[in-house]
Amino acid sequence: MVATAATSSFFPVTSPSPDSGGAGSKLGGGPANLGGLKSKSVSSGGLKAKAQAPLKINGTTVVTSKEILKHEDDLPSPPPRTFINQLPDWSMLLAAITTIFLAAEKQWMMLDWKPRRPDMLIDPFGIGKIVQDGLVFRENFSIRSYEIGADRTASIETVMNHLQETALNHVKSAGLLGDGFGSTPEMCKKNLIWVVTRMQVVVDRYPTWGDVVQVDTWASGSGKNAMRRDWVLRDCKTGEILTRASSVWVMMNKLTRRLSKIPEEVRQEIGSYFVDSDPILEEDNRKLTKLDDNTADYIRTGLSSRWSDLDINQHVNNVKYIDWILESAPQPILESHELSSVTLEYRRECGRDSVLDSLTAVSGADMGNLAHSGHVECKHLLRLENGAEIVRGRTEWRPKPMNNIGVVNQVPAEST
């Protein structure tokens, strides 16, 4: 009997359906048989059924087939088994893979930023690296298509921008960048900024589209209250020197806009990064003469500074002055010659909404026969409308290579 009851619990007997004869119908023509035990019938005269105690066999409670069926009816039916819901949960797998990759990337970022050689400090952001005992900063640049001109070479503005970018990244990589444009933390406390007073650039060859150039820069002391910064720009593939540049910088109070001495706190902050070396270029001591309306050969007026010309120190970026100087350079020189050197003396800062005049005087050249004139020298002046000097300059030009001249001559003339 125990075996029969246990078997009935695993293989329940199907209960009669409501429309198979009502409560008085019997399964198999007789009363329901639970393993040889007869259940009491329920009277049909509206009388209440007597409560039935749990069935026990040898002291063990036995679950009847009716109770099992009632319990199964209360449970929600599982969805039908199909090919789709038998597949693994791909979202969980994808989440696990993503977590693994993120963890691996984090470990990679944190592991190997230490220098592999004692003479090289690698910037964790991939901007550049500090070499030669931490005193020289090196950075590579790829010449983009929008950085070249009509003769398929990089412009002088491109070269100057790369020099400036390298100088700022040098300060940043050395951990000296405060809340300013190249200002150190001590300079920020005293409202001091760097301003350039003199810039000298010599270009031996201009890079072309797709070239990768390598720029080295370092800083040195210059007198008691100035700093000198030098650059060397090379062809990254051949090591050929393309450009050399040297500049002198002084400090200015950004609130009063007056020049300032270098405070002792700032000197201690930056002094350990100075290189004891001679300038990369021999200084051109020739005096830059002042031009006026009578001595200038070409004058371009009405040049105005725009909001996009300002840097975060709220004055025109020094590279913009090169563009304004060339505005008054004669077109025949621009077409047949390329700029080989430039020397600039910055006299005054230029702010927003300033209107300037650009003056140029050509010396030692026959403008009607530039193709056979060889090198050409020009003098320049940028001034405000009221006559105040902004920049004095000198440029030297050499004939362009013949292939570049041919390219320029292929540019279609403007239709009238």
From TrEMBL:
<feature type="region of interest" description="Disordered">
    <location>
        <begin position="1"/>
        <end position="35"/>
    </location>
</feature>
<dbReference type="Pfam" id="PF01643">
    <property type="entry name" value="Acyl-ACP_TE"/>
</dbReference>
<feature type="domain" description="Acyl-ACP thioesterase N-terminal hotdog">
    <location>
        <begin position="134"/>
        <end position="270"/>
    </location>
</feature>
<dbReference type="InterPro" id="IPR002864">
    <property type="entry name" value="Acyl-ACP_thioesterase_NHD"/>
</dbReference>
<feature type="compositionally biased region" description="Low complexity">
    <location>
        <begin position="7"/>
        <end position="20"/>
    </location>
</feature>
<feature type="compositionally biased region" description="Gly residues">
    <location>
        <begin position="21"/>
        <end position="33"/>
    </location>
</feature>
<feature type="domain" description="Acyl-ACP thioesterase-like C-terminal">
    <location>
        <begin position="295"/>
        <end position="398"/>
    </location>
</feature>
<keyword id="KW-0378">Hydrolase</keyword>
<comment type="similarity">
    <text>Belongs to the acyl-ACP thioesterase family.</text>
</comment>
<dbReference type="Pfam" id="PF12590">
    <property type="entry name" value="Acyl-thio_N"/>
</dbReference>
<keyword id="KW-0444">Lipid biosynthesis</keyword>
<dbReference type="InterPro" id="IPR049427">
    <property type="entry name" value="Acyl-ACP_TE_C"/>
</dbReference>
<dbReference type="InterPro" id="IPR045023">
    <property type="entry name" value="FATA/B"/>
</dbReference>
<keyword id="KW-0934">Plastid</keyword>
<keyword id="KW-0150">Chloroplast</keyword>
<dbReference type="InterPro" id="IPR021113">
    <property type="entry name" value="Acyl-ACP-thioesterase_N"/>
</dbReference>
<dbReference type="Pfam" id="PF20791">
    <property type="entry name" value="Acyl-ACP_TE_C"/>
</dbReference>
<dbReference type="GO" id="GO:0009507">
    <property type="term" value="C:chloroplast"/>
</dbReference>
<dbReference type="GO" id="GO:0000036">
    <property type="term" value="F:acyl carrier activity"/>
</dbReference>
<keyword id="KW-0443">Lipid metabolism</keyword>
<keyword id="KW-0275">Fatty acid biosynthesis</keyword>
<keyword id="KW-0809">Transit peptide</keyword>
<feature type="domain" description="Acyl-ACP-thioesterase N-terminal">
    <location>
        <begin position="1"/>
        <end position="123"/>
    </location>
</feature>
<comment type="function">
    <text>Plays an essential role in chain termination during de novo fatty acid synthesis.</text>
</comment>
<keyword id="KW-0276">Fatty acid metabolism</keyword>
<protein>
    <recommendedName>
        <fullName>Acyl-[acyl-carrier-protein] hydrolase</fullName>
        <ecNumber>3.1.2.-</ecNumber>
    </recommendedName>
</protein>
<dbReference type="InterPro" id="IPR029069">
    <property type="entry name" value="HotDog_dom_sf"/>
</dbReference>
<dbReference type="GO" id="GO:0016297">
    <property type="term" value="F:fatty acyl-[ACP] hydrolase activity"/>
</dbReference>
